[in-house]
Design goal:
Blueprint (H helix, E strand, L loop, with lengths): L1 H15 L2 H27 L5 H32 L6 H19 L1
Helix pairs in contact: 2-3, 2-4
Length: 108
């Protein structure tokens, strides 16, 4: 059992320096999984608008909405992940990526 704890602690130490990239990967994966659903919902709600207004809304949602979410929320997620101690960080990260894989598989 101590070998497993040592493995998680070493993995946590290694992953701490990559938390900004890890949080970006988590958020980007969530956007890939649910972005099409969100775009369909927006498209359904703005269908009656003219072409230029629809295009402008999609530019705002895709460029500003998704981009701002990645830029602004990613550091917050990295700060939240940094709050975990070395015994729990790597299991939490592994669980997050397994959950993302499950969500991606279920979404298709």
């Amino acid at each position: 059992m101590q070998i497993l704890f040592d493995f998680f602690i070493n993995l946590s130490h290694w992953s701490r320096s990559y938390l900004p990239e890890i949080s970006l990967a988590i958020l980007a994966t969530l956007m890939v999984i649910y972005g099409a659903t969100l775009n369909r919902a927006i498209k359904r709600n703005i269908r009656q608008l003219n072409f230029i207004l629809r295009t402008s809304i999609f530019i705002l949602v895709c460029a500003l909405g998704y981009g701002a979410t990645l830029i602004l929320v990613s550091p917050l997620l990295a700060q939240m992940l940094a709050q975990f101690n070395n015994q729990t960080l790597s299991p939490v990260l592994l669980l997050c990526f397994v959950l993302l894989g499950f969500l991606a598989d279920r979404n298709n």
